[in-house]
Design goal:
The protein is of the alpha+beta class. 50% of the residues lie in helices and 13% in strands. It folds into three domains: 3-172, Alpha-Beta Plaits (2-Layer Sandwich); 178-226; 230-371, no CATH class. The chain has an eight-stranded antiparallel sheet with strand order 3-2-4-1-6-7-5-8. The chain is elongated and about 85 Å long. The two termini are 51 Å apart.
Amino acid sequence: RKFIVEGTIPEGSNLIGKTLKEVGFIDVKGLFLFAVYRNNAKISIESNMVFETYDTLLFTGDTEVITELLNQKKDLQLPDAGKLGYSKDSRMMEVVISHNSNLISKNSREINFRAKYNASLIAIHRNGENLKGKIRDQKLKAGDVLLLISDDFFEERISNDNNIYMISKTTDIKKQLPHVTWLLFIGILVSVILSALHLVPMFTSLAVVIIVILWAKITSPKDIAAKVDFSLALTIIMALAFGTAMLKTGLADIFANAIITALRPAGTIGLLFALYILTSILGAYITNKAAVAITFPIALSLATQLQLPPKGFVLLVSYAAAANFITPIGYQTNLMVYGPGNYTFKDFFKVGFPLTVLYMLTTVGIIYWVFL
């Protein structure tokens, strides 16, 4: 969703005296400058125009771009953002103006978001329109989506308010400093190297990295807990436990025997197809990690009973679990495009099914001829 956002060049800004071409604009991708106001008058935008103090710039951009603008407080100030005194605990909220809202036909000056909601209006989305005039002067309409800065109690404050409805709590407002990025990169790289050399377990090294991150106040325990998908973690843990139980109780052998008996006429190639299909179905409707945890013991039992190299069976399970094209819930990247692209389960199945069949034929064929 593209928002219209307004920024003013303050005194001491690095933008003062520079041309639009030199600014470039602030190296923020996805940002489009469509209007500039100087002394309350709109001026034409040209590559050689020189920015002056108190120029007001209007952009279109998404929430990530706006977050970057907020973090460049010295060069560009968004209306009222500084007055609210936002901190590391501040959040950006998307709210929509209801059809019977008392805020309709009022601008932000008349509403006074800071006094009414302890929030600041940062940007407006109105059906993709490029608004005329400054953000603070816009008369709000029903259906307008507003981007506000507030705190964690904002949702509670508007729970009984029929003027606006919360759409989403989009993101934390945090500046990504270069040294933070390098610290994380080096920490993870060292963890991988130590684990690969069998010097320190991966869990231990990553735990140390997290402790350093907390000590440096790069993040907080609250933020870490908020990012953890506990339902996914529980699913994986239970699947791993189930897989271990299958091996120890002999259930994996029972399943393997049943598969061998049923598909004996089809030979080894038929068993490979059956194992691939089973893993693929599980991966499509739970998670790929859980699917591997469940089918891995069966794959090992099949290889043992058929007296075949287990490597091919293990690779087959891995490839089958990783190739989730049929449903949007089968893999994280599927979900990432599911909402923004307005896709349906039918869309994924229509393209994903033939792709899965092609991938399965290729994988089974290569594994059969190379490893078995």
